[in-house]
Input
Amino acid sequence: HYDTYAAVAENSNGEATSYTFHNVRTGTVNIELEKKWVDEDHYRTAIDEVPLQVQRRLNYTDTWANYQRVTLDGVIDQNDGPESGEWKARLEKLPKYNDDGVLDDYRVVESTVRETGKASPLMIQDGGYTLSDGHVYEVSVDAKYVYGEHTGQAVVADEYTFTLTNSRKDKISVDVYKIW
Output
């Protein structure tokens, strides 16, 4: 979808001498974020918050830049009801194109988690992290993209959904004794 605007040049008599029309690509992106935990509820006592970084880049380039930081905390807000205790966020009306009309790509990166009672966040390295109590987590991201449609004058925003899953991957050591 393009928005068109015109620039008019006038001579000294106030008469139009030229018209320049500009077509600007328009559109927006909405991003739904959800954090899932696969760990039998251990995270409820071990994790305070998860900061996520929304990044964007110009389409077909390799360089990602931080765009917006979002912190999920899973805290139930009494004013918003029990659903607010879910680890979710929604960002709306992010620009789909840059000022030159080039498509922007978006992704979500989880680089740290904040452990309960700890001042410094844990860095996620090699796709996972280990809590101070020894529990090991693996981090994965599932992305789904639904592209909006342009019908007449209406432009429907693109909808991106990023589900970040932290799965507990503890290794258990068991001593086995064989009795003869």
Observations:
- The two ends are 79 Å apart (CA to CA).
- The chain has a mean pLDDT of 82.
- The first strand starts at residue 2 and ends at 10.
